[in-house]
Structure formats: structure tokens, C-alpha cells
Amino acid sequence: MFAGAALGLLVGATHCATHKSTTVAPATPSESPPARPPKAARTEPPFHPISLTDEQLARACKVQPLVARASAAENLEPNLVNAIVWLESKFDPKASNKSGAKGLMQLMPTTSKAMAAALQRKNRPFDPEFNIHAGAHLLRVLLDKFDGDEKLALFGYARGSGRVRAWQKTREPMPAGVREFIAKVERGRKTFARLGFPDAAPRVCQKT
Question: Which of these, 115, 120, 80, lies nearest to 101 by C-alpha position?
């Protein structure tokens, strides 16, 4: 009850002791607080797609049926696989690096052998069909291991699942190199989605 109203009622009650009737002034209603201005809508920064040379695009177009089949078999988004292939090898099936990683998805020798055994296939890291399916299977294994957390799965793809487990025991930020890898994968995924891959690959590839 407002102070003014309480005081008015008290005066009125006292006054009633000597008079038969009295009028109590109504309490002054409180003023509504000023309305808050609406929050400004969040605007996302402009998206800058990755740059693909004509040769890279032609190679990407060539393997889209393989990406689609491997992604379906492993229940993955095809353009997530496309993004990793682009980032790892720029769609060059003969790519290799000094650490020993080979093929489109840059599988290390021990990883390639393990995926071949899991898929009950021959280990052929430079074979596009095998390499893409093996890499997709590795990503599925990592997603299952980390309860569907895509960032942790990509962390494991880039650095190995053991490094992820070790990092989880600390309170440190995710390593800068891993964050950069994840951001590049996301940029690649959006780029290939805008191209309409893998479904629109035949139409896009006619221009290359």
C-alpha cells in the first residue's frame, strides 16, 4: 500500500471518532516505467566464400558422386565432407604431405589402415573412392565418440582423438590452430552448399 494512502486512511479513521462521515482522498497511482527501446536485430557479418580455381572446381565436380555415397553410408552432411576434402587436399587425389598423410582427405598411414580394416576393404589411400569413404568413416567414428559434438570431432580429425581427451582435462581455450581449422571447414561447407553440391554438381560442372 502506498504511503499516501496509508496516511489518508489513518487520518480518516481518527476523524470518524468525532464525525459520522468523512472522505478519504484516493491514492495517487504509480507511474509506469518508461518503455525500453527494442533491441537492435543482430546482423551476421558478410560471408566470403572460398576461392576455387577452375582446376579445383573440375576436380571437385568429378568426385561428387563419391562424396554423396560415402556421406549417405556414414550419415553425414555431404558438404561437411566436401569442406574437409577441400581444406586437406584441394581435391587432389594424389596429395601427400611430409607427415605421411595421403589422398583426398589426408589420412595418416595408421589411420588409413584402421579405416580399411573397419570397412573390410583394401587400403588404397590414393584411390578417391576408398579415401573419401575412409575419411567419412573416420569422421563418423569421431562424432560418435564425442556424442555428436561436431567441433570436437573436427578437433579429433585435425589433431587426433587423444589430443582432444587431453585438452578436455584442462580449462584452456581450444587451440588457435584448431579453431582456425573448424572455421575454414565451416566456410567451405557454406561455399559448397551455395554451389548446390552435391546434387547440382552436374549443372555447375558443365561450365568448367
Answer: 115
